[in-house]
């Protein structure tokens, strides 16, 4: 999953083994052919009738109080107990999806499983409203007692037997994670949301086989994990049957149905199907070949690296409009964020690289995550780190013209530091007592610190040894589960280093080291350089890692690699007086690398004299961290960014500089500094926009120009003229999304014609889903405070937050820097909603919500509100408290006196 990635085929052992597994399954599981076909013909009304009829014959048997009812959610204890007694699960599901959103979805399931003991009741998870369970019977139709409480469906032990058990369940499908829209739906069950739809054992280490039948409206198409086996049309309905899957975790079970178009291509005898809703055929044409190419390359690369053929055979992928994440790795039915997959004409090189990375990430998950899965969600980072680490490896050969070390540095370090420097920093591996709280495990540490750590692990072990260790790990645990400690113990056999000690600080501890450089003259006129490592938390931890220290003088440069496993390391003396010293000059080092004052002041004036783009990138990260740490003033940093922008040629660094210009401008300069530099910045960005030849650069500069426009007549007129089509940008045809962006900005700037602009922009949006999203957002952009207040109030209704990216975007407009002074009042109610948002929303939503709510604020009043909220809630869930501290970090740093 991403916010945020085989020898030639013919691994005979795997193929034979899969065949054997299937043969076993056929004889073992009772097949519900007759009943399934029958049920697929049932309408909702018939289901209701049969339900009432059975009610008369077999009244429900509520459980007696002697059975212990587990608490809400899925506790680690419950998961451990079930993992030791339950096995060989097969869910044979039939689901009836009506066309109308107002009609309920019904499900029917044959549940096969083996029990080691029948001493205890069987506890299924079914987190839906009371009344959703309709009937539970044995195969012969005899009723089974059950109770539905605290999100669990419980069958007493007297109805169980040792060995094979089969129950037949009828129920109303819960809709919380079905993402039901007018014309389509898709399930998204990570981390433990399968049980919000149907009864199951919703923990990653109870892998099961799924056999699915969907009954869908005519004109729709459907896909799921297994291959489609049958397709029939009957009475304006379609019945689609899917093949039984290999053992997969419940969070990976998925189906998608709706009005989608499909494209199919074959690669190495496997058929790949692309489901999409994009209406713009030219846009599709521009994208399709690259998307398939990247999918194929990713699969081929993984098969070669792991020595294991794509474990699930089938590869359908679906572009979902307004998808909550970047992608989700359901085997056989991978979901992708449509916007990130189907790129607009103005896509930047970064967008293309990100797309390649996303496809590689989700594809890598088929092995790391889907084939071998974590035992418990505390190790969810493990699948994410492999996906990211491998995505970087896969994408590199696809873009030979790019500087991949620089990409790695700019993609991971800044995002990881943004969390690791805060008071809310979390370690890579976190504890998790209940799957209810699994959502808060995800974030930049998992997605961006972990790949750096994995890169360091590869450096510690050597590339070949790591690969051999990973192959052993995949072979050992395939179609099963493993922990990080299981992996480290396998890797330990392939390394001479103490990997456990290394893992303890890098994986199990939060925060990052702080490095300081000091120099002393040596007797022979050389210079001795010492690098000191500090632990910002005062715990004296040491983060062992290789660092490359570089010194640059007028007549030359030196580089020394040291293994920093002690508080102070001394670099071999330098024979000249350096102009500047960089304590880290590669993409591998991780931490706050503070420059000595002389080097900092030299680089603020001369950073562009560094010839190597990677070293320039590393120097930028040092200056950036020093600005955040108040060692460099924001205005000095801003001026350096602007003067460098005039000269910088490396696109990746231009993107970094432009992003930091915007960040420094809005979040660090005070009001009078902003007013002073505004016109200069606007001219600089417009000049770059007009003179750059590359389309992707033009798109970058246009965005920056639009997003930094202040409320002054001249710039607003320019934006308005661009939107009206009266001021064309040389060499650039604006895509619809850019017009939308400008329309939003004109509204935020209270342009006198903003009302008309927004209304006309609605008509310009061709795609239906995008238009609905835009219409939803309009009140959040209103110049009328009452309209905005009313909209914010409505966000407390979960229905209004159903499309989470829409809600986050709207909340960020309400809290836009241009409206900072009037939006402080949203902070407290926004924080008050956070717990509910975690329980009703998907996993990235709490962080997106907090970032939209807090990250644009810098006033003492806003800082006070956050601090007071934390003080007034001493027993607040620790994971959410940490997320608040992460999102409010800049706000709190800027107001250190408010505690
Ligand atoms: Zn992932």
Describe what you observe in this structure.
The protein is of the alpha+beta class. The chain has 32 helices and 27 strands. A seven-stranded mixed β-sheet has the order 4-7-2-1-9-12-11. Strand 11 and strand 12 (237-242) form a beta hairpin. Helix 9 (404-420) crosses helix 10, helix 18 (671-691) runs antiparallel to helix 19 (695-707) and helix 25 runs parallel beside helix 29. It is globular and about 90 Å long. Zinc ion is lined by residues 1-2, 361, 365, 384, 387.
Low-pLDDT runs of 5+ residues are 4-66
Spatially, the strands of the biggest sheet line up as 4-7-2-1-9-12-11
Range of strand content: 15-25%
Helix content: 40-55%
Shape: globular
Oligomeric grouping of the chains: single chain
**Number of distinct helices:** 32
What value does the average pLDDT take? Answer: 90
Q: How far do the termini sit from each other?
A: 37 Å
How would you classify the helix and strand content by structural class? alpha+beta
The distinct ligands, each listed once, are:
zinc ion
Q: Strand count, sense and closure of the main sheet?
A: 7 strands, mixed
Question: Which keywords apply here?
Answer:
899 residues, alpha+beta, 7-stranded mixed β-sheet, 45% helix, 18% strand, binds zinc ion
